[in-house]
Specification:
Layout: E1 6-10, H1 14-25, E2 29-33, H2 37-56, H3 66-73, E3 75-77, H4 80-84, E4 89-92, H5 98-111, E5 117-120, E6 140-145, E7 154-158, H6 165-177, E8 181-184, H7 194-210, H8 216-227, H9 233-240, H10 242-250, H11 255-267, H12 287-292
Parallel strand pairs: 1-2, 1-4, 2-3, 4-5, 5-6, 7-8
Antiparallel strand pairs: 6-7
Length: about 300
Amino acid sequence: MPDITTVTVLGTGVLGSQIAYQAAYFGYDVTSYDLDDAILEKARGRFVQLAGLYTADGMPGAADGRADRAAAGIRLTADLGEAVADADLVIEAVPELLELKRDTYTKLAELAPAKTIFATNSSTLLPSDLKAFTGRPDRFLALHYANQVWRNNTAEVMGTIDTDPEVYASVVAFATGSGLVPIELKKEKAGYVLNSLLVPLLSAAAGLLVEGIADTETIDKTWRLATGAPAGPFQIFDVVGLTTAYNITAASPDPKSQAFAALLKSEYIDQGKLGIATGEGFYTYGTQTAGSQSAEN
């Protein structure tokens, strides 16, 4: 079974930063890649913020310096070749756009050593949609993280018919070693387990809103009161991130999805309201709340 000790995460968005930090916190040698130094500087700030959150949440060893050491130990680079030169595992967490992901894997196939395993964190795309562009379909699979990975510590592992079972087992072992609970899927399923359950809820809520049936607060209140859930669907949208929600709904031909995408863009994204990560989305959040949750991708 391939041994994973060095990990590279592509994309330093809020979730990409969480993935990198979680691995570093559990002792892996981690490199974070993004397009330029300005983006990487923001990522460094996210790592510092995560160190504070791990400490506030009482993660083992965080208050004794482990959290700060993890933040300081992550290497940052805008050179893709340098980022993957010695990686045992590359976790791709770039925006949820098929052509962008395919282009990313085409470049990776040329730059990464033969030993490297590729894993996509895609929320909605099947690994089969991408495997032909990896140059190593036997060493490619999906590894999907939930938001707030140190709290909601699931790691959904999903291979294709080409994925080497030893590679699959190695990624399961990595997930366990980085403080996560592996969720092993037996076959490919768009949306995995988590989003197969979550997306219908969010789609139904979006439909109620764009049809004018009820406002966001009423929809959320109904869900919380009737089910005992801690958050309603529009609160969840804010955690997921409105850019991710827009990318997914804009790609759907369904008229309600198109209407919701248009609403997200005009009323929220164009106004810089991207969800909890920016302090405002469907709801407004204080500084501490904004930092404590995340937007995917």
